[in-house]
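SAMPLE LOG
Freezer: B-3
Tube label: C17
Construct: single chain, 96 aa
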Amino acid sequence: NEQYCVVRGAMLHLPGKDKMRIRRGGDVVATLDRKLVAITPTYDIYRGVGAKIGYLEKAKIALMDTFEFHAETSGGFGPFKPPAAYKLEGDFLDRR
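STRUCTURE (predicted):
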């Protein structure tokens, strides 16, 4: 089993400490930055350390952990969000 990527960082809910970096082969390929003011846990996703490519938002009502990825280029304005490009759901603690 070869390691695909390494995730570093912590979600401590402290200013400046809510970042996770995803590395592959020593290079930062993505950065997740938690928004401080949001109804549900929401993370901005940046390619490498540069341009924002979208955001990940936890579903408000769900029977299991559910996150939706919204691409930055898919439109939407204010409270009218674009439809989710991807939906992630499951038990993230049971990794078998």
